[in-house]
Amino acid sequence: MESEENKKLSQKIRLLLILQSYDQSIRQKKERLKAWPSILKELDREMEQHNQELESATRSLMEVKARRKELEGKVSELESKIKKRYMQLYEVKSNKDYQEMLQEIDDLKDKKNKLEDQVLDLMEAMEEAEKRLKEIKNTVSEKQKEVEKKKEALKKEMEEIGVSLKRMEAERDRLKSEVEPDLLSTYTRLMEMKGAALSPVIKGVCQACHMSIPPQKFIELLKCQTLMNCPNCERIIYWGEEEMFINIS
Ligand SMILES: [Zn+2]
Asked: What integer pLDDT is reported at residue 1 of this predicted model?
C-alpha cells in the first residue's frame, strides 16, 4: 500500500510537472510573440521585392516607348528630308548634280528603312513589356492581398497569445506559490539551465539525457520515497510510466 510519504512526494512531482508544462507553454508563447516583428518585417520585405519588380517592369516599358518615339521622330524627319530632296530635283541644273541628289535620296531611304525596321522591333518589344507588366501587376496585387491576410491572421494570433499568456502566467504564479521554496529554487535553476527541470525515466533510462539510471536507483525511483535527480543530467526524475504523471499538459 502506498504510504503517506509516497503520496506526498507523488503530489509534489505532479505539481512540478504541471508547473513545468505551464512554464514551457509560456516560454513558447513568448518566443512566438518575440518573433512577430521579424515575421512582419519579412512580409514587408517580400512585398518590397515585388514592388521593385513592378517598378522595373514599368521603367522598361517606358524606356521602350521613349526609344520608339525617338526613332519615329527620326523617321518622319527623314521623310520630310526625302520629300524636300524630290522637290529640289526639279531645280537641279546639271546631270551630275541630279545623279548626286538621286544617290542622296537613296541613302536617306536606306536609313529610313533601317529605322523603320528598328521601330517594328521596338513595337514587338513594347508588346512584350506590356504583357510582362500586366502579369507582374496581377502577381503584385495577389501578393498584396495574401500579405494583408497573413498580417491580419498574425495580429489576431498575437492578441490571442497575449490574452492566454496573462491567464497562464497567473495560474503559473499560483502553482509556484504551492511549491516549497527550496524545491522551487532547484526547479527554477534547472529550468533556466536546461529548459526542463524534470525528466521521466522509462525502463531505466532518463528520457532527457538518454543515460541509464543504475538499477538500484531505478528501484528506489519506483518506490517514490525520496526526490531524486538524474546522476547524469541532474534533472529531477520520476517514473515515466506512473499513471498520475502521464497526460499532464
Ligand atoms: Zn538525465
From this structure: 41
